[in-house]
Amino acid sequence: MQEDDGVLDPSMLLLTVLAYGAFALKLWALVDACLRPQAAYVAAGKLTKLAWVAILAAALLLGGGDVLGLLGLVGTVAAIVYLVDVRPAVRELRRGGPWG
After folding, report:
1. What is the four-CA torsion angle of 15, 18, 19, 23, rounded to 10 degrees?
2. Separation in Å, CA 95 to CA 43, 48, 83, 90, 98
3. pLDDT per position as a tens digit, 19-39
4. Core-most of 28, 34, 65, 89, by most CB within 10 Å?
5. What is the distance of C-alpha 12 from the center of its chain?
6. CA 6 → CA 2, 3, 10, 14, 49, distances in Å?
7. Cβ(23)–Cβ(64) below 8 Å
8. Which ranges constitute the DSSP H helices of 1-100?
9. Domain map of the chain by residue range?
10. What is the rounded CA–CA span in Å between residue 59 and residue 10?
11. Which residue(s) pair with 2 in the sheet?
């Protein structure tokens, strides 16, 4: 991550930050999917809990924090889809509606 003159390369620093961010995003999605009840996924009309946990675990294990590789990109997209689409639907059902 350092050049010969001791100065940090900005592009490598950016890739490192993106890699840690992608890893954290995938880990957050996987932990959240594990904590939600199975019935909420079915009631929301989404894939089953087992399917989402398997997808997100594969994304984390195969892609890790890779942001430039195909598996890393696909895994990051899967985590984003879960967090933006599935999580709000499952979360809303658990609280009993949009107002609590």
Report:
1. 180
2. 13, 19, 17, 9, 8
3. 999 999 999 999 999 999 999
4. 65
5. 22
6. 6, 5, 12, 17, 48
7. yes
8. 10-35, 38-43, 49-58, 70-81, 87-95
9. 22-95
10. 27
11. 8
The 8-class DSSP code of residue 65 comes to T
Closest CA relative to residue 56, chosen from 87, 14, 20: 87
Measured in degrees and rounded to the nearest 5, phi and psi for residue 8 equal: -70, 135
Give exposure, 24-60, as e/b (b: 16+ Cβ within 10 Å). ebbbebbebbeebeeebbeebebeebeebbebbebbb
